Amino acid sequence: MTTTHSSSTRYRWFILSIGVLAQIVFAIGFAGIPLSGVIMRSDYHLSMGELGFVLGCMGLGVGISEIVWGILTDKLGDKVVLMIGLASMGATYAIIAYGFVPGGITDYRALGSLLILAGAVGGSINSSSGRAVMTWFQDHERGFAMSIRQTAIPVGAAIGSITIPFIASSYGFGLAFSTLAALSLIVTLVVWIWMVELEIPEASTQNVSGEGVSPLKRMSVWKIALAGAALTFPQMSILTFASVFLTDQHHMSLFVVSIIAFSIQLGGGVLRLVTGRITDKYQNRRNMLRWISVIAGIAGILLGLLSGQNEFLVVGLLIITGLAGNAWHGVGYTEIAVAAGVRYAGRALGMMGATVFAVSFVIPYMIPFILKMSSWSGVWIFVGIASLLALPLIFESAQPMKKNLVAKEGDSVG
């Protein structure tokens, strides 16, 4: 089902809500599974290295599939790709629940392979829902709209950080993965029934350079994607190993750790909305990304230097690092999509997703290695330094040209 630009402008918010719902379901699993790491280590009898591998597998799956999904989204449209991804992700979770939980096949490589598959098919949600934002909203609204969509990730992660560890610890991983499967399939039906795909007018199909060059061939777009990868270090390090750090180093209970994780995800979601609104008003997306990089870098380094100190100070620095790591997404994804142009929005969002989720895979596998060679102090100092790598990649102060992107008021639904 498609519609034209004469459609009701209010419907764009309903379309956005569907994308938000899809992102929430993905994030519940993507965040809830890692935050069940302490339980998983015990129930599956995993070493720290094996746990790190398993916890990074969904990120690897998303990373290796994002660009492909971006290309398919540009060619097939938002709705088809979103349905394929959600249904396939639900089916994969169902397979894990059926035979790859404690009491069944518990080999970490088998579980990891299925989580890679879940991530690979779930990665379609990012490009397809993001492209819908680019087609339904004008540039002066896109930062806020994309931030709302990206806020779905910490909101979903907040829900996942409470529910999935609780279900896994109380009822087992079978019910935890079955719950994820059911949610995925329910949202597939929602997309099928209510999702409307907007046709892109010819006037807005040129990219910002006006030359029809794919963003895959443009270094300026790749720099934004790599900056996003750098800013993923604080987010994913907190997401995957904060629970282990606080449990092992400061002997906090799972309940307290879950509350801290919930606060970081919820606060990160609020910050995404705030930064999106600010950058729409002042058109300063790259300046905002630079500030976030500096805050995450300084907080991460201080956390490393003070990791063994008073637990209130440690938790405070951990929260700041996590909030900064969560705050950039709406701004960053908008910037790369605008830089590429509406025609190539799917590809550009796929590029960002590829770098972000490749790092999401590397981090859980890397942290146990750094921990073995150094300490938790070394881990957080490394995270802080990695966050600062975004600065040279987004050094240009000027925003990419947007004149060809939104040449007329009617280029996108207002």
UniProtKB/TrEMBL annotation:
It comes from the Bacteria. Keywords: Membrane, Transmembrane, Transmembrane helix, Transport. InterPro entries: MFS (IPR011701), MFS-Transporter (IPR052952), MFS_dom (IPR020846), MFS_trans_sf (IPR036259). Residues 15-402 form the Major facilitator superfamily (MFS) profile domain. It is a multi-pass membrane protein. The chain crosses the membrane at residues 12-33, 53-73, 80-101, 107-125, 146-167, 173-196, 224-246, 252-275, 287-306, 312-336, 348-371, 377-395. Coiled coil: none annotated. Its main location: membrane. GO terms for molecular function: transmembrane transporter activity. This is Sugar phosphate permease. It comes from Baia soyae.
